[in-house]
């Protein structure tokens, strides 16, 4: 596990301080699996460090971080503190302030689990109100790292294989290779017990623990993915299938974000699968685009635009988060499916996050910060830096278009085409009005109507605005009335 604060430090003259703060774990109603992951990874890492000759002061189950820090200083009398730059906005400064209270100078080392540097984003920003597109940034990262490059050219002569990576699921016969799983050892079982003791009232199930919590296991998961599952990642990247949680998605985000895997080694391993004929180029490019493109891009967006970014609400959304995001009590099959995945595993794949959970919140007009906090608390891979650009930017378009040039808004058409959900649903995906009509339809058109003026100025949305304006007036009135009723019901906490 890389940590730049340890690199170059002398094990004989250093103590590694690790603190589990119960107060920090209770700051949001974090999903239990997310807390287990963090405690289990920390405890295994402490063992690895000891085995490598480091002295570790591990303070488990502490009520409060600052008190535990003070207790360490009292016992060990350190002369300075060395920390890695924190991913969460403002956290490095808070740690420095705490150290200064104890008279300790601080050395801050660069973050370890990103590939890009600030200049990679900043040099693409030009002029007032400028924005960087993911595509421009991604190509620059490919050139910089040489990943999937043949000299100065992209492998296969194209930067983008998106067209090949959007297949809807066939009606029958789609099977996915099972993913590697990692049952809990004694240390992980101890972490599970800690979480049940201190966070028993938090949401989510711990279930059968199956995620890697050591670097060795994370590498095994990466290898398994690249050998057996990466080849089919591309075609079904955007598809949704009832009962299928992982499909061909990697489930590597938790391991990458917590520091068990470095994003560059992940994409290099994926490239090797292509170069050795184990996975098709379209799949590997699609995967590399997610890690070297999207992941790096959201990191840099966060670093560049915080702290005001998290408060953005460009579309003036005002609906409180509907109750079914928490309890799963809804008649909408797609939403039940997505929420049940999250409650049971703290995971849902990207299209469920974006086109079901996020899309619904966008078109219904959910307050961005409320949606953000729910996503942040409930996902095993959720951290401030990655959640803000994904939830507030990509899903809710509340950043005014910094992350996406147009909102990822869709009616039931999209879900009906890309999934096998609608046939299992009590709603009709073809109807927009009436009690049986799919709520996505009325809310989608109402969303267009509410933002008509803004979207008319967006060349990628103009055609939809025209389509709305071209519908019969009576239909438009009925659709808006249905949307109003749905929003009213959600406000009142009634089922939808
Ligand atoms: C509303 C919303 C919330 C999200 N919250 C998170 C989050 O808290 N943490 C998180 O890591 N990702 C988040 N994502 C991005 C993406 O959905 C997840 O990274 C992905 O679903 C993780 O599952 P996986 O490892 O199976 O990914 P795969 O589909 O296998 O993708 C491969 C890898 O690409 C990276 N990746 C892909 N898309 C993104 C992205 N948009 N931002 C950052 N990394 C990306 C991840 O490291 C992921 O492991 C969110 C997306 C949306 C729309
Ligand atoms: S009909 Fe609508 S609510 Fe039901 S599964 Fe399809 S998109 Fe979801």
What does this structure look like?
This is (6-4) photolyase. It comes from Vulcanimicrobium alpinum. The chain is mainly α. The protein folds into 3 domains: 99 residues, Rossmann fold (3-Layer(aba) Sandwich), CATH 3.40.50; 154 residues, Serine Threonine Protein Phosphatase 5, Tetratricopeptide repeat (Alpha Horseshoe), CATH 1.25.40.80; 168 residues, DNA Cyclobutane Dipyrimidine Photolyase, subunit A, domain 3 (Orthogonal Bundle). 49% of the residues lie in helices and 5% in strands. The strands form 3 sheets. It has a two-stranded parallel sheet. A two-stranded parallel sheet has the order 3-4. Helix 10 packs antiparallel against helix 11. It is globular and about 75 Å long. The two termini are 45 Å apart. The model has no long low-confidence stretch (mean pLDDT 96). The structure holds flavin-adenine dinucleotide (FAD) and iron/sulfur cluster. The site of flavin-adenine dinucleotide has 28 residues, from helix 9, helix 11, helix 14 and helix 16.
Q: Poorly predicted ranges (pLDDT <50, ≥5 residues)?
A: none
CATH superfamily of the largest domain: DNA Cyclobutane Dipyrimidine Photolyase, subunit A, domain 3
Mean pLDDT: 96
Q: What is the β-strand count? A: 6
CATH architectural grouping of the largest domain: Orthogonal Bundle
Ligand inventory reads:
flavin-adenine dinucleotide, iron/sulfur cluster
> What is the N-to-C succession of helices and strands?
EHHEHEHEHHEEHHHHHHHHHHHHHHH
CATH topology of the largest domain: DNA Cyclobutane Dipyrimidine Photolyase, subunit A, domain 3
InterPro entries: Crypto/Photolyase_FAD-like_sf (IPR036134), PhrB-like (IPR007357), Rossmann-like_a/b/a_fold (IPR014729), UV-DNA_repair_photolyase (IPR052551)
Protein name: (6-4) photolyase
Organism: Vulcanimicrobium alpinum
Pfam family, one: DPRP
């Amino acid at each position: 596990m890389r940590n730049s604060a340890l690199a170059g430090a002398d094990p004989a003259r250093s103590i590694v301080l690790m603190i589990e703060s119960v107060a920090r774990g209770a700051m949001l109603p974090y999903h239990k699996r997310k807390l287990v992951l963090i405690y289990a990874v920390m405890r295994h890492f402490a063992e690895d460090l000891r085995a490598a000759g480091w002295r570790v002061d591990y303070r488990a189950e502490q009520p409060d971080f600052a008190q535990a820090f003070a207790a360490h200083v009292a016992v060990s009398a350190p002369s300075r503190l060395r920390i890695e730059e924190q991913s969460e906005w403002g956290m490095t400064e808070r740690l420095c302030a705490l150290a200064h209270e104890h008279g300790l100078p601080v050395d801050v080392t660069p973050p370890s689990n990103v590939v890009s540097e600030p200049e990679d984003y900043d040099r693409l920003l030009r002029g007032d109100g400028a924005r960087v597109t993911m595509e421009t940034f991604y190509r620059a990262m490919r050139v910089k790292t040489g990943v999937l490059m043949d000299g100065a050219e992209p492998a296969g002569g194209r930067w983008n294989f998106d067209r090949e990576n959007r297949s809807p699921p066939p009606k029958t016969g789609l099977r996915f290779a099972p993913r590697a799983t990692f049952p809990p050892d004694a240390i992980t079982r101890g972490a599970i017990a800690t979480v049940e003791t201190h966070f028993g009232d938090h949401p989510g199930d711990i279930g059968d623990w199956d995620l890697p919590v050591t670097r060795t296991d994370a590498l095994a998961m990466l290898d398994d993915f690249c050998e057996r599952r990466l080849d089919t990642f591309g075609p079904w990247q955007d598809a949704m299938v009832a009962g299928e949680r992982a499909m061909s998605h990697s489930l590597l985000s938790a391991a990458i974000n917590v520091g068990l895997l470095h994003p560059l080694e992940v994409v290099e391993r994926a490239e090797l699968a292509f170069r050795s004929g184990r996975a098709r180029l379209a799949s590997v490019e699609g995967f590399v685009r997610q890690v070297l493109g999207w992941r790096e891009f959201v990191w840099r967006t966060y670093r560049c635009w915080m702290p005001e970014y998290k408060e953005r609400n460009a579309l003036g959304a005002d609906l409180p988060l509907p109750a079914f995001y928490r309890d799963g009590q809804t008649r909408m099959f797609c939403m039940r499916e997505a929420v049940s995945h999250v409650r049971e595993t703290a995971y849902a794949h990207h299209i469920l996050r974006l086109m079901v959970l996020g899309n619904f919140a966008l078109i219904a007009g959910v307050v961005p910060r409320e949606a953000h906090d729910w996503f942040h608390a409930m996902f095993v891979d959720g951290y401030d830096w990655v959640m803000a650009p994904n939830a507030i930017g990509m899903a809710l378009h509340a950043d005014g278009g910094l992350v996406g040039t147009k909102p990822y808004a869709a009616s039931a058409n999209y879900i009906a085409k890309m999934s096998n959900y609608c046939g299992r649903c009590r709603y009709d995906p073809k109807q927009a009005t009436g009690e049986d009509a799919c709520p996505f339809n009325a809310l989608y058109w109402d969303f267009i109507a509410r933002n008509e003026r803004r979207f008319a100025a967006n060349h990628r949305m103009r055609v939809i605005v025209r389509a709305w304006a071209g519908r019969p007036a009576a239909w438009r009135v009925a659709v808006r009335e249905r949307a109003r009723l749905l929003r009213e019901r959600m406000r009142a906490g009634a089922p939808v």
